Amino acid sequence: MYNRRDFAKLALAGLPATGSAARLNSRINGVLIGVQSYSFRDRPLENAIQGMVEVGFSECELWQGHVEPKGSREELRKWRTTVPMDEFRKVREKFDAAGISLFAYNYSFREDFTDEEIARGFEMARALGVKVLTASSNVTTAKRIDPFASKAKIFVAMHNHSNLKANEFARPEDFEQAMRGMSRYIAINLDIGHFGAAGYDPVAFIEKHHSRILVLHIKDRKANQGPNVPFGEGATPIREVLQLLKTKRYDIPANVEYEYKGADTVAEVRRCFEYCKRALA
Fold first, then answer.
1. pLDDT tens digits, the chain, 281 residues: what are they?
2. Where in the sequence is the domain holding 57, given as residue range(s)?
3. Whole-angstrom Cα distance, residue 52 to residue 54?
4. Alpha helices per DSSP H over 33-114
5. Tally of domains in the chain
6. Angstrom distance (rounded) from CA 152 to CA 24
7. Is the pTM of this model over 0.85?
8. Domain containing 257 — which CATH number?
9. Where are the beta strands (DSSP E) in the chain?
């Protein structure tokens, strides 16, 4: 189980180093609204960071696609197991310079990962200065990951999609199965849009499991596996979730993940952020 001191330590671990740019502040009425850098997937990292600054985010979860090269599965495995950790320290410096707190790195452990690939994920997290990895993983990978996470003292927050398939995170019982018998370092990254689209109630789930949830992904989708839509046009209870965080004082970053199709990325991400602000008024 986690307590408020644990979360404070995680938050402090993501603060920019002394002497960097003045920090932005996207905490609204006690709730930290951040961003998954996947929201800016149409541009390289430097431009994505600039977009975050323009919108006003002070916290980010870094998508692995902003760091990893494109290539075949074997080429990617080779890169992951040989890339110098200085590359990740340089990435952290970019966020520090922009005044943005880097909270987590998305590194999606899958069944085909070698032990070396798994171990390197924790080295990457350490080089980035984060205490949380988020992962779109298979349920059964938790058992393999847990010893590495426990040794590194770095949390792995499992991310869900809406695909109701065996060994994929989508249902409440998938999270419960993955965490059963595991250390506290196996946790949850709940995507409320996917969770709702799969037919489950994110508000009830957060109330029940808030001590194991390290980060939320905020998006809106139509019900019954419907498409991603602009915030406020779908069935996802975004306002109710954010009000729950505010009322209960759950110190869980709520990261905007822009996935619907819009004309201008920065304008649409700003639109998402503004919706969250109104929801927390």
1. 555 456 545 654 455 544 445 678 999 999 999 999 999 999 999 999 999 999 999 999 999 999 999 999 999 999 999 999 999 999 999 999 999 999 999 999 999 999 999 999 999 999 999 999 999 999 999 999 999 999 999 999 999 999 999 999 999 999 999 999 999 999 999 999 999 999 999 999 999 999 999 999 999 999 999 999 999 999 999 999 999 999 999 999 999 999 999 999 999 999 999 999 999 99
2. 4-279
3. 5
4. 45-55, 73-82, 86-98
5. 1
6. 30
7. yes
8. 3.20.20.150
9. 27-28, 31-36, 59-62, 101-106, 132-135, 155-159, 186-191, 213-218, 220-221, 228-229, 254-256
Whose tokens are 């707190």? That residue is 101
Matching residue, tokens 């502040």? 25
Report how far residue 39's alpha carbon sits from residue 232's, in angstroms, rounded to the nearest whole number. 17
Report the amino acid identity of residue 26.
Answer: S
